[in-house]
Amino acid sequence: MYTVVTGAAGFIGSNIVKALNERGVTKIIAVDNLTKADKFKNLIDCEIADYIDKHDFIARIQAGHFDGEIDAIFHEGACSDTMETDGRYMMENNYRYSTILLDWCLDQEVQFIYASSAATYGASSVFKEERQYEGPLNVYGYSKFLFDQIVRQKLAQNPSSQVVGFRYFNVYGPRETHKGRMASVAFHNFNQFRAEGKVKLFEGSHGYENGGQMRDFVFVGDVAKVNLFFLDHPEKSGIFNLGSGRAQSFNDVAVAAANGCRQAKGDAPLSLSELRAQGLLEYIAFPEALKGKYQAFTQADLTRLRDAGYIAPMATVEEGVSQYIEWLNRNV
Q1: Which residues pair with 117 in a beta bridge?
Q2: What is the residue-wise DSSP string for 246-278?
Q3: Exposed/middle/buried for 316, CB within 10 Å: 0-12, 13-18, 19+?
Q4: Is 144 a catalytic residue?
């Protein structure tokens, strides 16, 4: 039997493949679209049984080629560009593709674990997995939101196979280099500091309580662990927030990234005020293109995840970004 990971060459998908490898699982079918070929690098140190293009895979699923051969699908493949304006493409790629896989998994009684998004909450200040708090701000968020509604309908019918959706918050960590402008703030902070000797942040990065932005930043290592926890518990289904459970400022990320870069050169860590005073952190204007399409505050309510039995602690920004910068210094 095979385990399938869609979006396998992408950020979260490749981390799941690596996590499966680390527990001895190598009979993995990696599904992705390598039109942008650089993503292949995320799989160089991974062991898989086969690679299949995403269009070929869905055609073969519909033709019955994999009936009885798959025991679980991690569906991580999607267009995650929140600035994408081609709604037709977004809905076909994110929504329709997902519904085909969902129906097949339910028919075959295959575990289906998929990527939703905190973008489903839009401008809400409450982040609970309940319909009244949901209102996406862009078509990416809508594509994820609509599929979640379909999942809720299917779960209400009490399917015998597992269906689990994770509303990812701001995920950061290894294997996101290919994402370009959509990569995490931590990744961009690392590149800025290495190239220019300083970090640039948007105005308002100091903290929500002062009118700025605070986000729930979650380390990809924790994301992979949660995915595998549910793989090990096929009796558990539902839609769950997957964040750190805490809101931290972009300043916190910048300080951790800058100090990680400094540590690699043997320099002592500096406080936020010291970084600013020495010109190592500066603020730039908030882009007009993001206004009205940007979540200023996010903080995952992890009650439902904890109630499902996942009790391991989530890394803080200070812990996770420090570990990530060490990885970047070794690999980028």
Answers
A1: 168
A2: --EEHHHHHHHHHHHHHHHTTPPP--HHHHHHT
A3: middle
A4: no
Range 190-216 average pLDDT: 78
* Cα four-point dihedral sign 41, 42, 45, 50: negative
CA 106 vs CA 3, 98, 155, 181, 233: distances in Å: 16, 12, 10, 36, 17
| Side chain identity, residue 267 | D
Q: How confident is the model at residue 80 (pLDDT cuts 50, 70, 90)?
A: confident
Q: Is 265 a known active-site residue?
A: no
Catalytic entry in 41, 128, 179, 236: 179
Given its phi and psi angles, is residue 215 left (phi above 0), alpha (psi -120 to 50 degrees) or beta? Answer: beta
Is residue 147 within 8 Å of residue 95, measured between CB atoms? yes
Q: What tokens does 303 get?
A: 């009650």
Both structure tokens of 147: 């599929």
Which residue of the set 95, 114, 121, 140 is catalytic?
Answer: 140
What pLDDT is stored for residue 308 in this prediction? 98
Residues 89-115: tens digit of each pLDDT: 999 999 999 999 999 999 999 999 999
Joined tokens for residue 293: 């399409």
Q: Please indicate whether residue 73 or residue 283 has the higher confidence score (pLDDT).
A: 73
DSSP symbols for 171-214: EE-SS-GGGGGGS-HHHHHHHHHHHHSSEEEETTTT-GGGTS-E
DSSP state of 117: E
Question: 272 φ, ψ to 5°?
Answer: -55, -50
Q: Give the CB-side neighbour count of residue 251, counting CA atoms within 13 A.
A: 19
pLDDT band at 211 (very low <50, low <70, confident <90, very high): very low
φ, ψ for residue 241 (rounded to 5)? -70, 140
Q: Which residue has the tokens 């290592």?
A: 221
